[in-house]
Amino acid sequence: MKHQVKSWMSKHPIKIDKYEDIKTAKGIMLQEGIRHLLVFDSGLLSGVLSETDLLLADSIRARFKGEECKAVKITVGDLMARGPTTVSAESSMTDAVRLLAEKHFRSLPVVDSQGKVCGILTETDVLRYALVASQSLEVDMPYVSRVGLL
Fold first, then answer.
1. What percentage of residues in the chain have a pLDDT greater than 70?
2. Domain extent for 69
3. Strand 81-82 with 87-88, pairing
């Protein structure tokens, strides 16, 4: 089994400019069925926008009424998580999963050896990895059952 991030990441992450309206980002995420967008400013990675961030936009707009609400423009850059932590495509999945767990992240932008973004590792990718890894392990079922995992 391959244990490097590059074998499990999503290789074509959807990118968006930080000055785009949040409505555009929401439409892209819904259309593509994704929960994270990599945010760029002048060609450089500057943040990550998650579906959780979109909830903040709804709460901001809820403070306004009528025409005021329509006039409120919220950009991707207003809501994104800035200065994202990245992981190398060559990193081990163990290191990447540890980083996700320790930092409570739901995704990590993946960079190549030149530091260019080449993918994104999401919770879904990690779950796929865990499923395949678990199928290749021999598990002592009586022990698992005894400790309440089944």
1. 83
2. 5-135
3. unpaired
